[in-house]
Amino acid sequence: MKTTRRRTLPLPLLFTLSLLLFAAGMGVGWSGASAYDQPAPQPLDISEPALAAVTLPPLQPSAAPLDKPSPAPDSWNLMLVNFGHALPDSFSIPDLARLRNGHAVDSRIYPALQAMMDDARTAGLQPLICSSYRSQDTQAQLFEAEVQNWLARGCTQQDAQRQAAMWVARPGTSEHQTGLAVDIVDTSYQILDEGQENTPVQQWLMAHCAEYGFILRYPTDKSEITGVGYEPWHYRYVGVEAAREIMANGLCLEEYLALT
Length: 260
Ligand SMILES: [Zn+2]
What we know:
Number of strands: 6
Distance between the termini: 18 Å
Oligomer: single chain
Structural class: alpha+beta
Helix content: 25-40%
Largest sheet: 4 strands, antiparallel
CATH topology of the largest domain: Muramoyl-pentapeptide Carboxypeptidase, domain 2
Order of helices and strands: HEEHEHHEHEHEHH
CATH class of the largest domain: Alpha Beta
CATH architecture of the largest domain: 2-Layer Sandwich
Bound molecules: zinc ion
């Protein structure tokens, strides 16, 4: 990224600087774009020896300071999928990487997910992926089952649809269809309710997920924005830069994207 930083300097100082540059010689390869414009990516703090074979995800090539996000809005890792943003017609099933327990994710996030899971286990925890990539048909079945649950509780069809959508995304609006999201629980507590947040696995994931490019996608106080109830088990890959920004500032993805 070659950008020239403009500053207002007093004319005498400008003149002096010009002389100095000229005196230093113009043939030494000095360029207006320097390392100052391209801060070196920071290494991830996940260098356990057991992970030597794991390929860590590359940082964004133009990593910006954390207080100045500048992601390309159409970056694959920042794809927004929610109740108001269905998957586009052009969306095709991602290249999937199969996990050992039968789950699958977009192959581009596999190294980061594997590293996060490995490090959690190295920390003495027992994380378990209980949901990952879903096809459109699977999502439709899950949504219909949730609607039936609410109908059985006496809701009208309209209310049942609305309530169901708070917990199971309508087909075409689930992040699980992107392959970029996983549900992770503590093996010792596999119930998907708010109690999940108190498990050692969730405490660790909430503290460290951003280091691997993941965010807690549906925080407790963002339901009105995300349209999804608190889910202290649903993690979404957005890349390290965005994840650090989002988690450090208590944002949800919708708020982060609105800033850029
Ligand atoms: Zn989920």
